What we know:
By secondary structure, this protein is of the alpha/beta class. It folds into two domains: 87 residues, Leucine Dehydrogenase, chain A, domain 1 (Rossmann fold), CATH 3.40.50.10860; 123 residues, Rossmann fold. Strand 5, helix 7 and strand 6 form a beta-alpha-beta unit. Helix 1 runs parallel beside helix 10. The protein is globular. The termini are far apart. Nicotinamide-adenine-dinucleotide binds next to helix 10.
Amino acid sequence: xxxxxxxxLKLAKKIQKKIKKIICKRKKNNLIIPGLAIIxxxxxxxSKIYIKNxxxxxxxxxxxxxxxxxxxxxxxxxIISIIKKLNNNKLIHGILIQLPxxxxxxxxxxxxxxxxKKDVDGFHPLNMGLLCQRNPNIxxxxxxxxxxxxxxxxxxxxxxxALIIGASNIVGRPMMLxxxxxxxxxxxxxxxxxxxxxxxxxxxxxxxxxxxxNFLHGKWIKKGAIIIDVGINRLENGKIVGDVNFxxxxxxxxxxxxxxxxxxxxxxxxLLQNTLYSFKKYQKK
Length: 285
Ligand code: NAD
């Protein structure tokens, strides 16, 4: 048995094509189009690549997008005043702040200043709270992309034992809420979890997001488990790998996401979907 690949790149292209069609039509009719503001604070090399890719994706589907770059010396007050202006800007329907932020600024402090209506990353406490109460509004991009990928392959996850490895605010925790919403019996583990492999061997669906190359080996999992690899790790030789040891997993899992080409393209596509959602739901007519 070998696993079926969950092709995030293919699905991302399919969804983006649909979005592009909607935007082309609006442009032809001289109608307003969705706009995304991308804020980068500091000089993080990976962040620069991520925001460039987000802008490219916006261009591809025809969204308006603007990058706002600031030195890490910028003070909190100034960032908040820029966010306020963007909250009131009628041409901007989504605002995202690329993480991580420089140490002196806490993510929560800043992310709650973005209007929940323009919070296309889904990190605002209100959007996270609505998801927690089974009433999702704007949903965090990576977990939403994973749910959409599972749906595309018609994988029925209701009732499954789902395990999340990694409990960050941007992946693990919202993923836990998404899986609960989808009817999974959900366990979340993290760096303090004891006997991780006791959980691994019982799981039907494993989502791993810890940032450790090749961490999860195929020999630990239940035969036929579904493996979603969120990790993006750059090796010394420049190769990008996930948190999963793909070769060993491929022979034992039923489905698996590749890295690259799995969760990554779905995350960017969720950002586009969220921007379109905010645009449709909240734009002033
Ligand atoms: P993070 O550092 O904020 O969180 C890592 C989590 O992993 C923590 O909860 C920590 O407790 C847990 N952890 C660490 N070591 C562990 C261990 N040995 N056993 C169990 N849990 C452990 O990271 P993050 O921002 O959530 O990102 C995780 C990975 O996912 C990174 O490689 C990142 O680049 C990648 N990522 C990918 C996408 C995508 O679109 N594909 C999106 C976001 C993050």
